[in-house]
């Protein structure tokens, strides 16, 4: 297992989490929790993928963990978990797959049907779709399983 | 015995106005529907209403309050003003603190009315977003020249996005223009073969336009029983993504890559 690479990537992932938290106007005293959340989610996902788990399943697990971390934080600081959880999952957004899908679709439209391009469009498109779904469902899990019909704070 | 009264009692008016103010600020700032309903109902209970219910739509809300054997309804329009978690946090903390007896009802009212709409200034957000996208490019396997390109492209894109939104352009126009400028800058570096995989800069820089909050909120709204809000948010997220894609494609067409 490439431990050094995984740890560096986690530290890298903390930066976008904080950057997007600034864009979402999260109060300054909570920014460090976004950094921890971003690194935590990325760590869980990278370790699972290292052991051969599918990217969508790994993202789902990471997103559930980030969500529970945000709930614990929310109960301590009397705020809504979404304040930090959305910024924390930003590093896991499937930007590369979405971009490849878009390029492939445009190529298909411009140059006509082509087996390789079609394959790229379908594979990357499905990956984008499943990863986004995994993130969004994972974040909703605590509200659906534990805090049913009652507020977190 | 019954007299037909057309005026609303001052206490009820105070309650309704506070609750609708809280609700519209929350909806404008991008809070989840479930949170909006919960906080409005709790505030209304604190302010002495017997029963309350709300109905939400993407740009307006209807509030009905029952007090002293009378139903009173008020509708309010709430245009989107961009995600602002600072406002959401302040409002929620005011309500929670009052429920736990840390502050009085009047203090809560003051806190809700005077909620500060503080935003990070552009000279903080632009470099923050620039750095975020630059680290995305590192995660995607970029090198130092790509890092620099992404930083510049994303920072400039964020400035364009903020300025257009400030001037009350439609967010769709803002996303299109920001994606266009980002891709133009990153694509120019790509034409000059700046760095090993210059394409990384293009898709890392436009990641700043990912509609994260509408997307996540839309799913949890739909799962928690606010289906119309969820669909509305999904549509607005899709529109923003389409505008971004169109911006990228236009810039690529212009540069011929």
Structure commentary:
The complex is a heterodimer of chains A (153) and B (257). With 153 residues, chain A is mainly α. Chain A is built from six helices and no strands. In chain B, α1 packs antiparallel against α2 (33-46), α6 packs parallel to α8 and α7 (171-191) packs parallel to α10 (227-255). The longest helix of chain B has 29 residues, at 227-255. Chain B has a three-stranded antiparallel beta sheet with strand order 1-2-3. The radius of gyration of chain B is 23 Å and the shape is elongated. In chain B, a hairpin with a 2-residue loop joins β1 (51-57) and β2. The mean pLDDT of chain B is 90. Classes of the chains: A mainly alpha (153), B mainly alpha (257). Chains A and B meet through α1, α4, α5 and α6 of A and α2, α3, α5, α8 and α9 of B.
Main attributes of the structure:
heterodimer, A: mainly alpha, 6 helices, B: 257 residues, mainly alpha, 3-stranded antiparallel sheet, 3 strands
Percent strand of chain A equals: under 5%
What is the CA-CA span between the terminal residues of chain B? Answer: 82 Å
Helix content of chain B: 55-70%
The CA-CA distance between the termini of chain A, in Å, is 40 Å
Helix content of chain A: over 70%
Strand content of chain B: 5-15%
According to DSSP, the number of beta strands of chain A is: 0
The geometry of chain A reads as elongated
H-E order of chain B: HHEEEHHHHHHHH
The radius of gyration computed from the alpha-carbon positions of chain A, rounded to a whole number of angstroms, is 17 Å
Q: Helices and strands of chain B: which structural class? A: mainly alpha
Given helix and strand content, the structural type of chain A is mainly alpha
Please outline the major beta sheet of chain A: none
Tell me which oligomeric state these chains represent.
Answer: heterodimer
Question: Could you state the order of secondary-structure elements of chain A as H and E?
Answer: HHHHHH
Greatest interface and its participating residue counts: A-B, 45 and 52 residues
Q: List segments of chain B where confidence is low: pLDDT < 50 over at least 5 consecutive residues.
A: none
């Amino acid at each position: 297992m490439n431990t050094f690479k995984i740890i560096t990537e986690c530290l890298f992932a903390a930066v976008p989490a904080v950057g997007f938290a600034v864009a979402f106007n999260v109060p300054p005293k909570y920014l460090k929790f976004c950094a921890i959340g971003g690194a935590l989610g990325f760590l869980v996902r990278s370790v699972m993928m290292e052991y051969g788990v599918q990217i969508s399943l790994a993202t789902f697990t990471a997103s559930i963990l980030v969500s529970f971390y945000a709930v614990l934080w929310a109960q301590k600081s009397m705020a809504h978990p979404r304040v930090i959880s959305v910024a924390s999952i930003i590093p896991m957004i499937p930007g590369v797959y979405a971009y490849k899908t878009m390029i492939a679709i445009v190529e298909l439209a411009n140059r006509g049907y082509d087996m390789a391009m079609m394959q790229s469009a379908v594979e990357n498109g499905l990956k984008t779709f499943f990863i986004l779904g995994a993130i969004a469902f994972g974040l909703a899990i605590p509200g659906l399983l534990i805090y049913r019909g009652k507020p977190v704070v | 015995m019954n007299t037909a009264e057309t005026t609303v009692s001052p206490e009820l008016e105070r309650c309704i106005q506070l609750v609708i103010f809280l609700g519209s600020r929350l909806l404008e700032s991008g809070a989840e529907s479930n949170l909006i309903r919960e906080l409005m109902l709790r505030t209304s209970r604190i302010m002495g209403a017997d029963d309350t219910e709300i109905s939400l739509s993407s740009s307006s809300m209807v509030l009905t309050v029952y007090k002293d054997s009378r139903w009173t309804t008020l509708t309010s329009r709430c245009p989107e003003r961009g995600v602002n978690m600072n406002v959401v946090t302040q409002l929620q903390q005011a309500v929670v603190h009052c429920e736990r007896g840390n502050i009085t009802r009047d203090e809560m009212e003051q806190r809700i009315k005077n909620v500060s709409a503080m935003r990070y200034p552009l000279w903080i957000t632009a470099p923050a977003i620039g750095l975020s996208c630059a680290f995305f490019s590192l995660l995607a396997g970029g090198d130092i020249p790509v890092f620099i390109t992404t930083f510049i492209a994303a920072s400039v894109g964020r400035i364009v996005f903020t300025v257009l939104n400030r001037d009350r352009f439609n967010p769709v126009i803002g996303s299109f223009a920001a994606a266009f400028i980002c891709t133009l800058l990153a694509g120019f570096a790509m034409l000059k073969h700046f760095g090993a995989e210059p394409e990384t800069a293009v898709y890392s820089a436009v990641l700043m336009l990912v509609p994260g909050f509408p997307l996540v909120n839309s799913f949890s709204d739909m799962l928690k029983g606010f289906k119309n809000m969820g669909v509305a948010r999904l549509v607005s997220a899709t529109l923003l993504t389409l505008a971004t894609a169109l911006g990228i494609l236009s810039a690529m067409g212009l540069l011929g890559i």
